[in-house]
Amino acid sequence: MAQSIEVVPGLRHYPLYFDRAAQERLRDALDGVLAAAPLFQPRMPRTGKPFSVRMSNCGPLGWVSDEAGYRYQPGHPETGAPWPPIPEALLALWREIAPAAPPPEACLINVYAAGARMGLHQDRDEAELSAPVVSLSLGDTALFRVGGVTREASTRSFRLASGDAMTLGGPARLAFHGVDRILAGTSTLLAGSGRINLTMRRVTRA
Ligand code: SIN
Ligand code: FE2
Q1: What average pLDDT does this structure show over 25-45?
Q2: Does ligand 1 come within 6 angstroms of the Cβ of 135?
Q3: If you take atom 5 of ligand 1, which residue's CA is the nearest one?
């Protein structure tokens, strides 16, 4: 089993779970995914204010957000095409670090340019909350923040670097979390700079 650190109860951080060669293979597989499912600019419910990250998805379901709200849907919001399959290396990661969970149905792809961030939020649009959220990071290091299950709980931050995996499960499944900032120039993996985070989730009850 890979080495991991339990940062807060239920949040496990697996530094450099994917070595450089595995990161390069996944990066190249994502080129195909993003050719089939181009990045789109999500918008906040009601206000329509754009997120600072761009997104896409793979898997049977994808997470989208616009004026109508947050939701999972089987097709791309702009092209209507079904999402492409989740790359096998990510499915293998899920099987390895979430062996008790039913297979993931959604893999959200978040692309952070320098200056992008993600405010504190909970992942709670899923009906199956017994499965963890499993994430893998590529490219520049993120300063990731995690708190408790209420917005008022104290928070702490740590760095997620290229190749790092993380699970949010058990008591941390509904923990507030977000990305304070991207540390530009900390990785050479991606052309240009920036960061890609892949977040797999089980959506429907198994
Ligand atoms: C997310 O919570 O959707 C993304 C987290 C991350 O970018 O690490
Ligand atoms: Fe999240």
Answers
A1: 98
A2: yes
A3: 178
